[in-house]
Write a structure and sequence with these properties.
335 residues; two-stranded parallel sheet; Rossmann fold
Length: 335
Amino acid sequence: MKKILVTGGFGFLGSHLVELLLSDTDNQVHVVDNLSTNPVPIDDLLSQLDYPDRISHSITDVENFCDSWSGERYKEIYHLASVVGPAGVLPHAGRIAASIVNDTMAVANLAMSCGARLVDVSTSEVYGGGQDGFCSETMFKVVPAKSSARLEYAVGKLAAETALLNLSGTRDLDLRIVRPFNVTGPRQSGRGGFVLPRFIGQAIAGVDITVFGDGKQVRAFTHVKDMVAGIVCAMKNGKKGEVYNLGNPANRCSILELAEEVKRITRTRSRIVFVDPTTIYGPLYEEANNKFPDASKAIAELGWEPRYGRNQAIEDTFLYMKGLPERLLFHLRGF
């Protein structure tokens, strides 16, 4: 039985990763999560995962878990734990970078103690928008002039990446880093500012679909099933000390186009309206620059390729949210 540790495993992305890992009957998964960003209550989530004999968990912070490590020998560690979302980072401003770096270093030390292979899930925010939105691993990482909670998140992730890569080059840290681009799909919560569950929740409720700004922001949405498949491929096939963009360039669209597709797929009568997000979230809120990935390195080296189109992500998320009882839908819609 292969023992695997997943930090942040009860979050949106983490829960899908855990589900994929448990589909292999040779895997035993331990989740570390403080439940600060879990999309649905843990009992409901565990019933959806439904592998009680091969999943265990510690409800605690990453640093606390690593400090009290019992000596369990994990073969693989996936580090996903972090504050998330353009709105989700706001309450943590001033503490985001420190928590990201401290948690990541604790996990890195644990991985070296275990002799485990580590996949660190970073962020596409480190590119600062790349070149007119196009982001490749060979490009400079960019720090914009204006400070914001979102920038603190990006800088924290970049600092953690840099430290990990230095450890991988100078010490025995068996590391791969992935940079996800605009993951979306079932279980994602609009509470963190994520756009698709908010649009779908508004469509289901029959209220206005609120597009921030002029809606021209460009994204390349990636189905969560494609993302977790890529993360596992990075663990299995990635090269030590390498960084991989994970995203679906074919799903590139504007936010307004996404709203129009949600309206069509859900057949809602909701209107699309344009709003200033700072009137909702306050002055520290900031939209990301346009961004979409060059995923050619991941496709060439990992044996991975995204399979799900944008409409499939919308349809799957809509079907999931439409089928939820009101008490769970409330956790996801984010308005």
